[in-house]
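=== RUN LOG ===
request id: a7f3
mode: sequence -> structure
chains: 1
length: 164
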Amino acid sequence: MYKVNIAGASYAIALNEPKIEVDGDHWEWDLEKVDDQLFHLTKDSKSYLVELIGIDYQEKKVVLKINGEQFEAEVKDKYDQLLEKLGMNHTRHSSHLEVKAPMPGKILDILVSQGQTVKKGDQLLVLEAMKMENIIRAGSDGTVVSIFVSKGMNVEKNQVLIQF
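=== RESULT ===
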């Protein structure tokens, strides 16, 4: 069961292919992949063009464009929901001193410099993976001590990118 927040509204979603359950209602839908970032969705005889704009794995956010209208969704799995219920969700990134690559990819841009002070959520760099641009953000407040990558560099999953 996932909890998805979109534009201030919260939805409980369970995926039971080929059906999906949203807030207890069963939806029948069909999803076809057009390419790595483009999908065709059919629900209740209505057609939707869904474009995946970006994914922020650290903040668990997805940016989608559905029939030309852009949406940002925050997705919480059962573990995120449990941490939130226990009041421990605010500590998720507090002890992180290193920013690691969430997936293999190529560094498109570095948005900070050594010695720069950043706040939690500030954009640090842009990582291209599977033809998608992913913004890597600071998990906590801090000062950039070292940057271990350069623009155009290929990185592996869990490779240290920046150290606070």
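=== NOTES ===
The helical segments are 78-85.
The chain has one helix and 17 strands.
=== END ===
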